[in-house]
Design a protein that fits this description.
Blueprint: H1 19-26, E1 31-35, H2 41-54, E2 64-68, H3 71-84, H4 87-90, E3 93-97, H5 98-109, E4 124-125, H6 130-143, H7 149-153, H8 160-164, H9 180-195, E5 200-201, H10 203-216, H11 218-227, E6 230-233, H12 241-251, E7 257-262, H13 278-286, E8 289-293, E9 295-296, H14 301-314, E10 322-323, E11 334-339, H15 342-360, E12 367-371, H16 375-388, E13 392-395, E14 399-400, E15 403-404, H17 405-408, H18 412-425, H19 430-443, H20 451-472, H21 478-492, H22 494-500, H23 509-524, H24 531-539, E16 543-548, H25 549-552, E17 557-562, H26 578-588, E18 591-600, H27 609-617, E19 621-624
Parallel strand pairs: 1-7, 1-8, 2-3, 2-6, 4-5, 6-7, 9-10, 11-18, 11-19, 12-16, 12-17, 13-16, 17-18
Antiparallel strand pairs: 14-15
Length: about 625
């Protein structure tokens, strides 16, 4: 592979980058990159990876490690690099989540853990509910020596994992420690290992075991550092104490170059255990150079101006961001809609969406209805009004066999199944066909350089598609839908997928996802007379999405309708609360062209008066409807 000199290298797939992005892209030292809404952080990371690989700054066989907070973000980044680099370079870019990174270390080196901490090889991996934590802590209070009772009683249940378990290092010989927290951790570990056959672990516990491996086994840590001279940390503002501890143990004090990308103004996961000042701590520990990306490629100029008003409330002196997006629709880009009651709100919204889509030739998924919480309640209020006008509404938070719909459709197994079915049902869909080929090769562990094995894998996919044709020549039905999906799942072979995917390797995660997928695609067959329509129903192609703000993070829409800006939805909001204001900022910044806010006069809005003041300061007017 011929390398490109650093001075001659040019961006791949995009026209260029802003000056600050070029500076961060070429950096050979640790950096903190502030990338606000629409700054193109994923594209920046993909271009930086391409630059490092194609110039030889990351030479073969060394690799680049990218760690993201969410699975879809990790997958999206990997796919972008795959499109910008030839296969022999792209294979040296490894994109995964913090959880997958920790789990891969644990599963590979589990036998190197001392017996008192070592989980059984068939451990169960699943989240805990508050009641589980409460039960173990209550038991610990009865088992602890009397003088430590008050300490154990003061340990909170809600954030025990994130703030206590996630911040503590496991000790090689904990018996030498008499501190209360060490005793409690030992008790926790013992309790979790006898809770169920094989022992139960949470992702935080997996993280602590992985961190222990790297700290206790310098040879493993050295090998990791030699393998990854460059490390990307995506959405860094959401990093938890446990995740940061793992990264620090893995890469602090060596020559690996770390690039942390994110935006403190979008820090909305503190409630779930995120560090409140991750960037500040990272800058101190890794001596980073701060760089801010100052362009917004998503939102039109008027919306960027509105966002800046909120950004200043979040961070005094927040830099002015330049919009690189054009306004492509007339009329106002933002308003507050005031209704007498929820029924009036739902009726107007449905009518407005139907008329607006027709007038501007917009598709259902160009819109998004955002709510702070309780999407199910809003679905019940909106659905009858939408149905009367022939509009389809999809609650992305809806649980199917315990799995949120939005999460279900980005699962690896779901994407593979749906791409194969797309290739079988539609004509001339090379993207789905190539995705299917690559996925099967990866699951079967086929080296892309082995042309004969690749050809065989492709042939097997084509034979599968032929096998599906007789059923696909019939009309969609629940039985036919279930048959074709089950046929594809059997072809993929869940056992092969467990071996190739760390996420599915242990426990019953894959079984739950498959059960939810089969239920959903079978249900979707009732809403269409054609197989192509069935695929559209599954993907929500003709549905207007309804989702919470937290689920919208990382997404963008032409027009956003933000419902329920009132005390009922924002019951925990307090003036000056950074996370709550950041949540509002995230909602506001999803819009490319327009954002509208609604509230009903029978709801109170005293707690959110500061948010209304910000909207007023930004020049957003209010319209009253009956």
């Amino acid at each position: 592979m011929v390398l490109i000199s650093q001075k001659d290298w040019k961006t791949v797939g995009v026209a260029g980058l802003e000056p600050n992005a070029w500076e961060a892209l070429r950096a050979l030292h640790n950096t903190c990159v502030t990338a606000g809404p629409g700054a193109g952080k994923t594209e920046f990371l993909a271009q930086r990876a391409t630059y490092l690989l194609q110039t030889g700054l990351c030479p073969d066989p060394q690799r680049i490690l990218a760690i993201s907070f969410k699975r879809d973000a990790a997958r999206n980044l990997q796919e972008r690099v795959n499109k910008r680099c030839p296969p022999e370079q792209a294979r040296r870019f490894v994109s995964m989540t913090y959880d997958a990174f920790a789990k891969s270390l644990l599963d590979q080196f589990i036998n190197g853990i001392p017996a008192m901490w070592r989980p059984k090889s068939d451990y169960i991996l699943e989240p805990l509910v508050t009641q589980d934590v409460k039960s173990i802590l209550e038991s610990a209070r009865h088992a602890v020596r009397p003088e430590w009772g008050a300490f154990i009683a003061g340990v909170p249940e809600g954030n025990f994992e994130s703030l206590w378990l996630g911040r503590q290092h496991l000790q090689s010989d904990p018996s030498v420690n008499s501190a209360q927290i060490e005793w409690l951790l030992q008790y926790w570990w013992k309790s979790m290992n006898v809770t169920k056959n094989g022992g139960q672990l949470t992702y935080t516990m997996v993280n602590r075991l992985a961190e222990f491996i790297l700290r206790a086994r310098p040879n493993i840590r050295k090998a990791l550092r030699l393998t990854y001279p460059f490390v990307f940390l995506d959405e860094f503002q959401d990093t938890t104490y446990a995740q940061y501890g793992l990264v620090t143990t893995a890469f602090h004090g060596n020559t690996s170059v770390l690039t942390a990308v994110g935006d403190d103004k979008q820090r909305i996961m503190v409630w779930a255990g995120a560090m409140p000042h991750a960037f500040k701590q990272f800058s101190k520990d890794f001596n980073t150079a701060p760089i801010s990306l100052l362009c917004n490629y998503r939102s039109r100029p008027e919306l960027v101006d509105i966002q800046h008003v909120v950004a200043q409330a979040l961070e005094i002196g927040s830099p002015v961001v330049e919009s690189r997006a054009l306004a492509n629709i007339g009329g106002t880009c933002s308003e507050i809609w005031n209704f007498s009651n929820q029924s009036s709100e739902a009726h107007y919204l449905a009518t407005w969406l139907a008329d607006d889509a027709q007038m501007h030739e917009l598709k259902p998924r160009d819109y998004c209805i955002l709510v702070r919480q309780k999407a199910d309640d809003f679905e019940n209020q909106l659905y009858p009004h939408f149905e009367k006008l022939g509009l389809k509404l999809r609650n992305e938070s809806r649980l199917i066999e315990g799995v949120p719909l939005q999460d279900l459709l980005v699962e690896e197994i779901s994407k593979i199944v749906l791409h194969i079915l797309t290739a079988a049902i539609k004509t001339r869909v090379p993207e789905s066909l190539n995705f299917s080929y690559d996925a099967i090769c990866e699951i079967q562990g086929i080296d892309k350089q082995n042309t004969f094995a690749v050809k065989q894998a492709r042939g097997s996919v084509e034979l599968l598609i032929k096998k599906l044709k007789p059923t696909l020549n019939k009309s969609p039905s629940k039985e036919h839908a279930q048959l074709v999906v089950q046929t594809v799942i059997d072809f993929i072979d869940p056992d092969n997928l467990r071996r190739s995917s760390p996420r599915y390797a242990l426990g019953d995660t894959l079984d739950k996802i498959i059960a939810a997928l089969i239920m959903y695609v079978t249900e979707s067959s009732q809403s269409s007379d054609t197989w192509e329509g069935w695929l559209d129903e599954i993907s929500g192609e003709n549905h207007i999405p309804l989702m919470t703000i937290h689920k919208s993070k990382g997404l963008e829409f032409h027009t956003v309708c933000f419902l329920g800006l009132d005390d009922t939805q924002w019951w925990s909001h307090k003036s000056g609360d950074h996370e709550s204001l950041a949540t509002f900022f995230v909602a506001l910044s999803r819009a490319k062209q327009r954002v509208f806010f609604t509230y009903c006069r029978n709801r109170i809005k005293a707690k959110v008066s500061d948010l209304y003041s910000l909207l007023s300061d930004a020049g957003i007017g209010e319209v009253t409807y009956e």
